[in-house]
Amino acid sequence: MAKSPEIEHPSKAFGWAARDTSGLLSPFNFSRRATGEKDVTFKVLFCGVCHSDLHMVKNEWGSSIYPLIPGHEIVGVVTEVGSKVQKFKVGDKVGVGCMVGACHSCDNCDNNLENYCPKMILTYGANYYDGTITYGGYSDTMVSDEHFVVRIPDNLPLDASAPLLCAGITVYSPLRFYGLDRPGMHVGVVGLGGLGHVAVKFAKAMGVKVTVISTSPNKKKEALEHLGADSFLVSKDQDQMQAAQGTMDGIIDTVSAQHPLLPLIGLLKTQGKLVMVGAPEKPLELPVFPLLMGRKLLGGSCFGGMKETQEMIDFAAKHNITSDIEVIPIDYVNTAMERLVKADVRYRFVIDIGNTLKSSS
Amino acid sequence: MAKSPEEEHPQKAFGWAAKDSSGLLSPFHFSRRETGDGDVTIKILYCGICHSDLHNVKNEWGFTMYPVVPGHEIVGTVTKTGKNVKKFKVGDRVGVGVLVDSCKRCESCQQDLENYCPQMVLTYNSYSQDGTKTYGGYSDIVVVDEHYVLRFPENLPPDAGAPLLCAGITVYSPMKYYGMTEPGKHLGVAGLGGLGHVAVKIGKAFGLKVTVISTSPKKEDEAINRLGADSFLVSSDPAKMKAAINTLDYIIDTVSAVHPLAPLISLLKLNGKLITLGLPEKPLELPIFPLVLGRKLVGGSDVGGIKETQEMLDFCAEHGIASDIELIKMGDINMAMERLAKSDVKYRFVIDVANSLSQ
Fold first, then answer.
1. pLDDT at residue B168, rounded to an integer
2. Would you say A218 and A224 are in contact if contact means Cβ atoms under 8 Å apart?
3. Rounded Cα distance, B318 and B176, in Å
4. Is B261 close to A286, i.e. CB distance below 8 A?
5. pLDDT over 90 for what percent of chain B?
6. Secondary structure of residue B254 in the 3-state scheme
7. What is residue B1's predicted lDDT score, i.e. its pLDDT?
8. What is the pTM assigned to this prediction?
9. Searching chain A, which residue's CA lies closest to the CA of residue B61?
10. β-pairing verdict for A348-352 and A39-49
């Protein structure tokens, strides 16, 4: 019979978990494995609240295993390293993102694309090599194979860099892969939330002209004055959208709700690329004529491999890019989730784990 | 008041046109412009029947301007050249494909992508720069700016090579653009019709492994034994489709009816590319999750520029690639259209215009 979460591993751990599809999180005693020879153990200081966490605590994707501790934008300070660990030492500032394991022997792993490995193990809610369930960063400690740990450079504030570990890499990777990173290009960013606002910052740092496309006119001022976007389109305004037809080399679409693709395809120049990083559950309608008539494409992307994640963090450090965050105590997390449903946050909640997550025992 | 089709230009012409959305074609007298300084006048020998012709005669896309003379897979002989014409002389064997004009100034035109020029003029059912309508190759002669005329290679049969002018370039162009030509990689061809069968031949010429994906099990023998495909997948067989998940690097989707994309996307490996070439009347359903999880893409493509069309013809001549055709007389065109609607042709009808178009 499977051991309870509290005793299945030797090191005590404490976090907040969802127990059922209500998605409500509450204190949860569990345990972490002992620091293996290739493992890095760190004290968690901050963890970003990703929209995926919300999908998962409510089992919206149908794959959740309860109790579920979410959190895959985890940063902290190393407390112990295994005997074969080469890249990190105690005291280092580190982070862990969306995955904690992969097969290391397939083509994808060989090409630094562990995120596309068929045996990739997610940071939470997945089966680890030892058969136990992985628990995420809404917790006091984290143990990870060093391969899946990134270094956070000293000049990046830990709290505001946590969201880069998912939101950051999720938009950085496709900007590079789909070639939307060349100075002078014009890229649209659909949706100004956790992913969207970081996409604007990265694209600007790459020398790209950025237009934010949003349903909310009240985000315009922020987008232009604070985030540095070059222009702003209200997607429901037909005249604005019409005037911008055929002007963009690419679009990063961060919206995970159902939404029409036709107007976005129309914004693309000939040979333009629409990249989906939000994942609506149900299929969308693909208008074929405009895709063909302009030799346009629509592609997807799913966070990034470890090499690229480190590259992204280093790029962010070089250009002083961090997420815009609202730091919250752990016991605000359920309220934060409710606000997240309404997109009421500029632009990522980050849980101050170090200062507010205390075991009751 | 606008002149009638017979009177609007000085050169008499004769062809078959559809007059309404029944799509039935019948004899039609019209006219062609004078051979301008940059023009070539062509006596039409053969014209392929493209599925777009069927869509157009029945106004399935909603923009047909009747009467419409279809036909954009034209092979013929030059009979007249304008005084500035450099590339051709009388007697040359030539081809005309899907477009006959463009602006020549925009970025697309400058990059030899006339097919993406916003002012591209289609070979039929389009407006010329002089404001008159264009009429296609189901006719005796056509007058075209030499820039848009292709040199038809000597060793390509003029009848079986005619479909290359649309079907051929339609599959060749995206295969080059989307990088689907690495020898040893695995290409899926969905739909085994006019486009599909040429895609198999061109795919094999690029050194690819080719799997045909079709709803019709009875096409398997032909696909493998005659066209040279390496394997055949019946898309309506769930077990076979499941076994083929994650095996294809690329897919050329030639199906012109509305059809599900999800099963095709599941066949693709990581970074796989699905290029859709058919033009269904309605949007297709696109599942996003599999694209995100596998970094896959769905792209479109629309024929090709003139330079690339010439390159494709020369490539096909070099590799002995032509279409598999059924030659018909002009008078049988309506029967052919009916059969085409049922995909009852291996794999392109070609009209023997010169020998069967009589007034």
1. 98
2. no
3. 17
4. yes
5. 95
6. coil
7. 62
8. 0.93
9. A289
10. antiparallel
